[in-house]
Structures are given as C-alpha cells and as structure tokens.
Write a structure and sequence with these properties.
Blueprint: E1 8-14, E2 18-25, E3 30-37, E4 49-50, H1 52-70, E5 77-84, E6 90-92, E7 102-103, H2 111-119, H3 122-130, H4 139-149, H5 151-156, E8 159-161, H6 163-172, E9 177-178, H7 179-182, E10 188-189, E11 194-195, H8 197-202, E12 215-216, E13 221-224, H9 227-233, E14 240-242, E15 245-246, H10 247-254, E16 263-267, E17 271-277, E18 288-291, E19 298-304, H11 309-319, H12 327-337, E20 347-349, E21 364-366, H13 374-396, E22 406-409, H14 416-426, E23 430-433, H15 438-450, H16 457-463, E24 468-471, H17 478-502
Parallel strand pairs: 1-5, 5-15, 9-12, 16-22, 22-23
Antiparallel strand pairs: 1-2, 2-3, 4-7, 6-8, 10-11, 13-14, 16-17, 17-19, 18-19, 20-21, 23-24
C-alpha cells in the first residue's frame, strides 16, 4: 500500500489491446496498475471502431480499480493525464455526447481518398505545408469519407477529437486538442503549427474548421475533474487534468528521447519507429512528420499497423489462450528459442490490418510444409515483426547518421528472445526499456511539468528516468538474418502487388 503522505501522478494509457491506469510517484516508480481489454469492433472488412461510451466507462473502471488496489486516496493525486492512439476520429455532438462509433487509426475504409488526392495532385500541392500525405488513418481521409457516405453523422459532429482528447473532454468538459497529436492529422500546417483552412478546403471539408478544438501543448493543465466524472472514476472534483499525449510521443519521452542522438522503436499493437530533430524531413522519403512534445522539435516517424499485436491474434488462433494466462508468454518464448534462425525458412507477413505500403495488404505464413510445427510458425511471427521494424528504421536512416543504439519499448520488450532478434536483425545494440508502462510514464512526466512539480520536460525525464537493458547483436547470426530479411522483403513486395487483384480492388 502506498504511503498516505505522498503525491502521485495518474496516467491512463489507451492502447490498441489494453486500457491501463497506472499510478506513478514523483521518482518515476510504478506504484500500481489496473487494466482492461480495449475492445475494437470489426463489423465490416476494413472497419476498426470503438464504442465511445464503452471506452470512457472502461477508463473510469481502470481508475477506480487502481486506486482501490494501491490504497492511494484521491487527495494524493497531483494530476491526471491520458495517452491514446493518434489519428482516427472520435466525434461528439452538440450536447457533448457520442452519437456514432469512433473510427480508429487502424480503420482502412477511407484509403481511396488518399489515393485520389495523390492522383489528382492535391497531396503534392499541400506537401509544402504538411510534409506528409493523407492516409486512411488520418482524419482528413476519414472525415471526407464520412461526408460522402454518412452525411447525417457528419452533420451531427460538434467536436472532432483524437482518442485522448475525447477522454479529456469527458473528464473535464473542456474541448482541447494536443498539438502533437493534431499535427499528425493533415489538418495542421507544420510551418505555422496552426489549423489551415486551405488544407481543409482542398480535402473538401472546410466546414470542419469550427469543429476543431483549440490546441495546447502536452505540459499544460486543461481542466479539472468535473462532478459527473468524479462519480464514475472516484477522483476528487477539481483534480487537475493535463493535456495528455499522443501515445507515440508519450513512449518516446519515457524512453528519454529528448535529443536527436538516438532512434526509438515501439513494438506494440502497432509499430512505430522514429527520432526527433529541429526540422522536419521535407524530401518525401519519410511517411510522417509532426510536432513533438518539446517545442521547437519535430517527430520524424515511420509507422505500420503490423507489429507485435499480430502475436495476440496468433495466440488466440493457435493456442486458444485465455486473456488472463500470462504464463503462455514463457511457453512461446521457449518455443521460439528452441529453433535457430537457420532451422526455419517460413515467412510470416504480419499485415493483419494492412501495411504502410498498402492498407489492403493481408497477413499470413508463406512456405508452410507438413513438418512445420507451432514453434516454426511462432519463430516466423517474431521474425516477421522484427523485419517490418527493420524496414521502417532503414527508411529513417536515409536521412540521418546511424545511431549508436536503438531504444526499444512496447510489448515485445517483455520477450528476451524477441529483443535479441531485433538486435540481430538491425545489427545494432538495442536498449530495451524497463518492463513498465512507457506510455503512462511519458504522460506522467508531462503531467508533472503541467502541475508545476518539475520545471521542464528534461528535468522531469532525468528525475523519472527508466532503467534500460543493453542487448548486443550476435555476429554469428547477423548474416543469417540479413539473408532472411532480403527474402522477407522480396515476398512482401510481391504480395503487396498481388492484393489489389486478389481482392478485386
């Protein structure tokens, strides 16, 4: 049980698999955590939605439970903050209530809008303001799709939120939007850091301007817990609530990414790799540029929906696992370690919800034979995810020098053989961050600054930093993985070209 004289920071991280409420002390120690499954709804091919009321209620449930488990009283909470997936559309109506499901960043229904804008030159004309092209994950495409296909819902929108800004709104009643998360939506001019009506008009959604909330930095207090939220979550009315964070920024801050010396990679439900710099990459070689939590810096980002989240599907299908069965991870790690890289030539494409190359790509094993076992299939899954991250990091390295190491976070870091595989595939040392909730830690760091507990992010990072485990590549297997990586890339490229014909797109 926690001491009743301490203050704590409460962070709720909304990931693609779980919602986790975490209590963190001012030294960065994780005091307690409560989590529940974050149910994504897939009613149609390409759809990936959330029930907005269920999302809010589950966040409140996690908060109540972590307070109960730890014995921390509501009076000890210095600040509350949310982290959430970036992009997507989380709308409310004039009364501040949900009226449709949220369309998440994993949803691909609107991908043709991005293709059309590339074909007709719209994306090229806007690139000098955005330094990225609109994709199905971003509100620009989703809102254009809603206007054309669900005009009644489109007209009902009062506020267009990201996931964490929707939760902040439910907690405080205040409509705000984080600069970091908004700058990745294709609705914000990266040169000015402000909404741009030319962008909205070019996408055919000019009326959305009045639906976009005022932007704030991650280190600002944006409101207080209101009475109706207090009744649901157990926090005191008036508890300060910070702006919260885009989950990628949150994890990067928690990893200590406060200068351009390192590259980070997050292998979670989705995969993200990136670094920060004082200017965006403007040559078109990078998928995403956005404003970072440190004013004056940009997040240079390569992402993919194909990452460690594929393992969760594999466990459900091949192992019929129960959600509470954590022992299964030790079992599958042993199975993966039982085979050397040379003992399996299976290729696993982890594109279960599409890829950054094509939102209609599909996943699967290539090369199955009767002698293959679940161990062979699992090793291929681990390798496939590592290879996808290597592709993303390779693109980043086109614009910067090779780093001394790669910092790694996400669910894959809980697996020693998986981290070792990343080091071997990348042929770089990997610093695996501690087995703690990095998204929650990043939010806590910014919340501590918002609450005036630390003067700035750099000071807070130093005071709350997490230990990291250094894993070196093994020279004896690096060439084997390099050969397998080339095979993976060849198979993936060929399959990306086949899917449109296969699916009659």
């Amino acid at each position: 049980m926690a001491s009743n004289c301490e203050n704590f920071l409460l962070s709720v991280d909304n990931g693609g698999t779980y919602i986790k409420a975490t209590l963190i002390d001012l030294h960065g120690n994780q005091v307690g955590i409560a989590k529940h499954f974050n149910k994504m709804l897939h009613d149609c091919d390409g759809y990936a939605e959330y029930d907005l009321e269920d999302l809010w209620q589950t966040n409140c449930r996690c908060i109540r439970e972590v307070l109960l488990q730890t014995g921390v009283s509501p009076e000890q909470i210095a600040c509350v903050g949310f982290a959430g997936q970036g992009k997507g559309v989380y709308p409310v109506d004039e009364n501040g209530r949900p009226f449709m499901r949220a369309i998440s960043s994993s949803d691909t229904r609107s991908y043709k809008y991005g293709q059309i804008w590339l074909q007709n030159g719209v994306s090229q004309s806007l690139y000098p303001k955005l330094y990225q092209n609109a994709t199905a994950s971003q509100p620009a495409c989703i809102l254009a799709w809603l206007k054309d296909h669900q005009p009644e819902n489109y007209r009902r929108i009062r506020w267009v939120f990201s996931m964490k800004d929707y939760l902040l709104f439910r907690m405080t009643g205040n409509a705000t939007a984080g600069k970091g998360s908004q700058s990745g939506t294709c609705l914000v001019n990266l040169n000015t850091g402000e909404y741009d009506e030319e962008l909205l008009s070019a996408y055919g959604i000019p009326e959305i301007r009045e639906k976009l909330a005022p932007m704030v930095w991650d280190t600002e207090i944006c409101g207080e817990v209101r009475p109706e939220a207090s009744e649901l979550c157990g926090l005191n009315v008036g508890t300060p609530v910070s702006a919260g964070m885009f989950d990628v920024d949150a994890s990067a801050i928690a990893m200590g990414v406060i200068d351009s010396s390192s590259i980070f990679t997050i292998a979670g439900t989705n995969g993200v790799s990136g670094y920060i710099d004082s200017k965006p990459v403007t040559n078109g070689s990078i998928a995403l540029n956005s404003l970072y939590s440190l004013p004056g810096t940009y997040l240079i980002e390569e992402g993919s929906p194909a990452s460690a989240g594929a393992l969760e599907w594999v466990l459900d299908v091949l192992f019929d696992r129960k959600r509470e069965d954590s022992a299964i991870y030790d079992q599958i790690n042993s199975m993966v370690e039982s085979l050397s890289p040379a003992q399996t030539n299976l290729v696993f494409l982890p594109y279960l919800t599409g890829s950054s190359e094509s939102p209609i790509s599909r996943g699967g094993w290539i090369g199955l034979r009767p002698e293959h076992t679940r161990a062979h299939m699992l090793r291929a899954v681990y390798e496939g995810v590592a290879f996808v991250h290597a592709i993303r990091i390779g693109r980043l390295l086109q614009n910067r020098e090779k780093p001394q190491c790669v910092r790694m976070a996400g669910g894959a870091t809980n697996s020693k053989p998986w981290v070792q595989m990343f080091a071997d595939v990348l042929n770089l040392p990997v610093e695996a961050c501690a087995r703690e909730e990095m998204g929650a830690k990043g939010v806590a760091i910014c919340s501590s600054v918002a609450a005036g507990l630390y003067p700035d992010i750099r000071t807070a990072v130093d005071a709350m930093k997490s230990p990291r485990r250094l894993v070196l590549p093994r020279p004896e297997v690096v060439p084997e993985y390099a050969e397998k990586f080339q095979i993976f890339q060849s198979v993936a490229d060929k399959m990306h070209a086949i899917w449109p014909e296969f699916l009659h797109e």
